[in-house]
Amino acid sequence: MSSSYGNNIKITIFGQSHSQAIGVTMEGLPAGFSIDMEALQVFMNRRAPGRSKYSTPRKEADVPAFLSGLVGNITCGAPLTAIIENTNTRSKDYDQIRDIPRPGHADYTAHVKYGGFEDVSGGGHFSGRLTAPLCIAGGIVKQILAAEGIEVAAKIKEIGGSSTEPAKAIEAAMSQGDSVGGIIECTVTGLPVGIGEPMFDGLENKIAQAVFGIPAIKGIEFGKGFAAAELCGSQHNDEFYFDGETVKTKTNNHGGILGGISSGMPIVFRVAVKPTPSISIAQNSISYEKGEAAVLSVQGRHDPCIVPRAVPCVEAAAAIAVYDLYLYRYRYQNK
Amino acid sequence: MSSSYGNNIKITIFGQSHSQAIGVTMEGLPAGFSIDMEALQVFMNRRAPGRSKYSTPRKEADVPAFLSGLVGNITCGAPLTAIIENTNTRSKDYDQIRDIPRPGHADYTAHVKYGGFEDVSGGGHFSGRLTAPLCIAGGIVKQILAAEGIEVAAKIKEIGGSSTEPAKAIEAAMSQGDSVGGIIECTVTGLPVGIGEPMFDGLENKIAQAVFGIPAIKGIEFGKGFAAAELCGSQHNDEFYFDGETVKTKTNNHGGILGGISSGMPIVFRVAVKPTPSISIAQNSISYEKGEAAVLSVQGRHDPCIVPRAVPCVEAAAAIAVYDLYLYRYRYQNK
Amino acid sequence: MSSSYGNNIKITIFGQSHSQAIGVTMEGLPAGFSIDMEALQVFMNRRAPGRSKYSTPRKEADVPAFLSGLVGNITCGAPLTAIIENTNTRSKDYDQIRDIPRPGHADYTAHVKYGGFEDVSGGGHFSGRLTAPLCIAGGIVKQILAAEGIEVAAKIKEIGGSSTEPAKAIEAAMSQGDSVGGIIECTVTGLPVGIGEPMFDGLENKIAQAVFGIPAIKGIEFGKGFAAAELCGSQHNDEFYFDGETVKTKTNNHGGILGGISSGMPIVFRVAVKPTPSISIAQNSISYEKGEAAVLSVQGRHDPCIVPRAVPCVEAAAAIAVYDLYLYRYRYQNK
Amino acid sequence: MSSSYGNNIKITIFGQSHSQAIGVTMEGLPAGFSIDMEALQVFMNRRAPGRSKYSTPRKEADVPAFLSGLVGNITCGAPLTAIIENTNTRSKDYDQIRDIPRPGHADYTAHVKYGGFEDVSGGGHFSGRLTAPLCIAGGIVKQILAAEGIEVAAKIKEIGGSSTEPAKAIEAAMSQGDSVGGIIECTVTGLPVGIGEPMFDGLENKIAQAVFGIPAIKGIEFGKGFAAAELCGSQHNDEFYFDGETVKTKTNNHGGILGGISSGMPIVFRVAVKPTPSISIAQNSISYEKGEAAVLSVQGRHDPCIVPRAVPCVEAAAAIAVYDLYLYRYRYQNK
C-alpha cells in the first residue's frame, strides 16, 4: 500500500505538510538497541530546512518526539513511533493552488485521485517535508547497520550537469527565480555476501522502490548503470579474484549486486533529482473552476536546489531497504 | 519475498533453467476474461530463443500449458497456473561453473547465499529463462489492460550506444565472441489519471521493482530521467493546458507520473540492459575448490545481445506493475 | 508483521501502556469521508475504563487527537494517525513484575522474546490499553460501513457461564478479588453476497486473525461453530430459497459464510474471553533474579471482568476485517 | 490475497477439483534440506481419498510431482513447486449444480462472486481436494520443524459429539445417506519460548488464519478455549514454576500461548469440523435459471465424515503457520 515499506523492518510514514504533525512508525526493530539521539539529530539536521542560503527559509526544528517503542533511549521491541509537530506553517501561501495546480507537482494528480478532498496545503502528503520522518527511520536504521559494520553514505555527484561547480549552478538558478536538479551517488559498504532475495525482492528492486519514495527522484542506476548499455560484455564483466581468502572483483561495474544479491563489493548507485518544481517564474497552468488557462507564480518558500537536502534522504531510503533484506540473512541457512 | 510480486494481482514465478518445468501462478485475475491464446503465443514468441540469428540456438517451444484457473480459455477467478516444460536442457555444459563462477552472473552470490545448494545448471532460478513465465503473466495482463484501453509497448532505443545501427553493433560483438548491451524504452498509454499510490507504491516505485526482476537490467529512468538533473525547473516543468475538457501537459518531461500518480499523459521510461555476461572470450575467475585463480571460457549457448528478447519482458513487467496499481482505482472514491 | 493488519485498509497500532502516547495509523481510507467525531467518542466511551463499577478505576479520557489524514473532519486520502496521550500512569505499580511474571499475562513470553528489554510497565505493548487505538480505527471503519448499509454489532452472550445473570457473576468474582470470563456474540448485517477471498483470506480467516488481536480472546466460532461438530449434514445444511428475488437460507447455521465468502445472510460469530488474568488473590510464580519460586499479588488497577469493555473491541476488529475484504468487491468483475 | 499464506515461508495453492492439476508453490524454504519423500508420501496418504470405507470412493494416487525447487531431493533455495495431476475426474456428476447450488457448499457464494464464471466442477477451487497441495507443503514443513525438534500432531477428539464411538457415529450417518461432523485437537511441542509476533501476527491469529483455510472448519479454540469463559481467573491462570532451569506452568489452560507468543508449554488447540455438506438425502435449494425452488440430491462421491481425512490437513496448516513465525526468531535479538 501507499506509505508503508518493508517486510522485516516495516515503516509507515504519515502526515501532511501542514497537518498537526508528521511522523513514522517502525515495526520489527531489534529490542535492546540504544539509539544515539545526538547522532540522530545531527543526521536530521542534514535534511532540515533553513540551514543554508540555498534552502527554503521555512525553519523547522525537526526534533523528533518519541511516542512509543523505547524505554529511555533503548528499543523495547514494540513499534516505535516518532513525530515532529508542524509549527511554522503558512497555509495561506497555498490558497491559490486549490484552483491552479503547480506544474511539476502532484497537485493535479492528487486532485483527481482524491476527488478534490486532498490536503492542498503545502503539497499535503506529497510534500518534501515528509522526508523528515523518512530520515528519522533511516537515521535509526543507519545506526543499527553501523553496529553491524555496514555503512551507508551518499554525496552530491553533479548539480545542473556540473560535478565541479555545484554552488555556482545553484546560485545561477536562484538568481533567476529558477531551480536546478542534480545527481546523488550512494554507497553501501560492509554488507556481507548473499543479501538480497531473487527476482522481485533483490537489492536493486527494493532500493529502487524505497528511493523513488523521495519526491523528485526520476531515475536510478546501479554500478555502471546506463553506461553499461554502451559496453561489451568483455568490458563490463567484473573478474573474480582472491584477496587473501576473500573473493573480490577487480572492477565494480556490477555495483556490488549480481542477481539482486550482494557480492561483497561496495553497493554503488546513483539517482537523478529533478529541479525543484516550485519556481517564482510565472508558469502556464489551468484553473479547475474556470475551466480555462491560468498563470501561476509559486510564492511560498522553496529551495532553488533540493539536491543537498536530498542526500541524507537517499541514505535513509537505502539504509531501510538494505536492512530489510539483511534481516533475511538466516533464512536459507538450514540451521 | 523473493519471486512473487503484487498486491492486487499477484504473480509467483517458479522454476530453474533445467528443472522439470518453469511457470507462474497468477492470483487476483478478473473472472470471465477470455484469453486470446494465439495472441499470447505471438507475444511469447517475441521473447523465445532461437528465433533470430542473434539469439541463443537453444530452441524451446515455450508453449504454456495451463494447469488451473481457466474453464476453456476463460478465467474462472481461481489462481491461474501455467507452466512450460524444460525439454532441451544440456546440463553438462554447466559442469565447469559448479567450481568456477562466471563473471557478471549470479553464480557466486547464489553460491554463498544458498550455502552451495543452489541449482547451478543453466543459472538455476537466476537464468534469463525465467522471463518466459514472466511473459506468460505479462502477456495475459497486457490483454486485460488492452480491453480497458491501456496499451503497453516497448522498443529498442539503443544498442551498444547506437540508436541507428543496432544490428551492426550486435554483429560486431558476436564476431568477437563478445556481447553488447542497450537501452529499451517503454510507453504506457490510455491509463486514466489518478493511478499510483503515494510514497512507496507509486508508479515509479512499483514499475522499477518489477522491471529489476528482469536479469541484466541495471538502471531505470522516467520521463527526462537523468537528463532532468541537468535542467532548470523552468525547462523541466510541464505546463498544464486544456485540450477540450481534457487536462494535458504541453511537454512530457515528467513521463506521465507526478507524485507517483498517473497524469493522463503517456508513461515513458527507459531501462539500461547490460551486455550478456556469457561470452566465449576467456575470463579470469576463481576456483572454489582449489581456492585459487582460474580461467573460464563460457561455452553453453547464449545471446550476443539480450536486448531484443528483453523488449517483451519489459512490457510484461510494466503491464503487471501498472495493472496491480490500476486495481486500486476505486479505493479512494467513497462510494 | 506484528502490529499492523490489512491489505486494502491497513492499520498499524503503536504504543505501550505507559508510553507517552498510544495510537493508530490507517492507510487506504476513502477520501472525502466525514467522520462523525461525536459518534466516534460515544463508541470510544463504550471501551473506556472507569465508566462502571466493574471496570478498572484508571480513568483515561481516551479522546483521540488527530495528527494527520484529515482536513477538518473529512478524510483527505493521506494516512490518518490518531493518538491518545497516556497521562494517568502509575508505573510504580509494576515494579514487582520486572522480576516476577504475572500468571496469565504476556510478561514472561515477552521477557524471553525481547531479551529483557521489553517495556514491563503496565504490560507494555501487550496491555489491554492498546485496544483503545483499535477502537479508534474500528469506530471510523464502522461509520464507513454504516454509510454502505453494513452494520456491525456485538453483545455479551454469557459471563461466567451464565447468560442471565452477568452482573451477579461479575460481582461474585469481584468480591473475592477474583475475575471472570465470558462469551461475546457479534453480528454483521447488510454485507452483500460475494465478499471474502478464497482459502486463506476468507471472512473466517481474516475475522479470526483480527479478533485474536484483542488480548484475552481464546476462541472463535462461526455460525453453529463447535455445536456443528455434533450435527448431521441434514441438520446443519441451510437450505436455499427465494425471498422475492433475494436468495436466502431458511436457517443460518453457516453464520453467513460459505467457502469463506458472504452469503448475504447475517454473519454471526462468537468469541471466548478468558477471565482477566490480573487478580488480587496471591498466585505462585517465579523470580527471574533469584531463580526460584515467588508469590505475586497483582496490585495495580484491573477489571474483575473484561467482557463488557471487550464488546466494542470485537466490533472494531470485525469491522476492520470485513471492510478490508469489502474493498476487494470490484476485483473479480471484469469491467 | 486469496490462496497464498505466509510472510517468511510463503505458500501459494492453485488448482480446481477437476483442472488439469492442483499444486503448491513454496517460497522461503531453507536451502540444503533433504526431503524424505517416503515420509512425505506416508503423510499424504493419511489425507488421500479411497483409503477407508468411510471416505469417498474417488481414488487418486495423490503422488506429488516436483517441478522445481529441488536438486535431487534437496532444496536449492529456489521456489519449490509440486503438483498432482487430476486424472480420475467425473465432471458429469456436477452438471446439476451449475443451476442448483448445494446447501452448505460454496456453490452459491462463488457463483455470485465470480459472476457465473466460477469452475463449478467438483466445487472448483473450493473443493476439499485442494487440501492435497496444502498437505504437500505442510508435510515438508513438518519435516523441517521435526529437524528442529518441533513436532506437530493432531488427532480426532470427537465425532458427532462422541469421543468414544466415532466409527459408530460415522456408520450411523452413512447408513442414512447423511454425514456427521467432529472435533480435532492439535498439539505442537518443542517450540522454543518467544515465537509469535504481537497483536495481529500472534500464534493464535496466524494458526487461526491458516486453519480456516481448510474447508468445513467453523471454529477454533486455544487451551481451555470456550470453557475458559466459564472460569474465574484464579482457576484459569497457569502458575509459573522452575523445572530445573526451565520455566514451566503447572497447568496449561493457556494452551502454550500468552500474548500471542509461545510459552514453551505445548501449544494446544481444537477445531470444529462441520458435517460434510454433500449428502444423498434430498434437499431444498433453488434453480438460478428458473428463478424458483428446486430439489437437489447430491450424487457424486463424498465422505460421510471428513474428520479423519482433515486430521493431517490441520497438522499441515498448523505446521506452516508455526514455521512462518518461527523464522522470525532472530529478529528481535540485536546481534
Please provide a written account of the structure.
The structure is a homotetramer of 335-residue chains. By secondary structure, chain A is of the alpha+beta class. Chain A has a single domain (4-326), classed as Chorismate synthase, AroC fold (4-Layer Sandwich), CATH 3.60.150. In chain A, 23% of the residues lie in helices and 24% in strands. The first copy, chain A, has seven helices and 17 strands. The first copy, chain A, has helices at 37-47, 107-113, 131-147, 166-175, 203-211, 233-236, 307-326, and strands at 4-5, 10-14, 21-27, 65-68, 70-71, 74-75, 80-85, 151-159, 182-189, 217-222, 240-243, 246-249, 257-258, 261-262, 267-273, 283-287, 292-296. Chain A has a five-stranded antiparallel beta sheet with strand order 1-2-3-7-4, with helices on one face. In chain A, strands 8-9-15-10 form a four-stranded antiparallel beta sheet. In chain A, strand 2 (10-14) and strand 3 form a beta hairpin. In chain A, helix 1 (37-47) packs across helix 3 (131-147), helix 1 (37-47) packs across helix 7 (307-326) and helix 3 crosses helix 7. In chain A, 67% of the residues are buried. The model of chain A has no long low-confidence stretch (mean pLDDT 93). Chains in contact: A-B, A-C, A-D, B-C, B-D, C-D. The interface between A and B is large, with 109 and 109 residues. Strand 10 of chain C pairs antiparallel with strand 10 (217-222) of chain D.
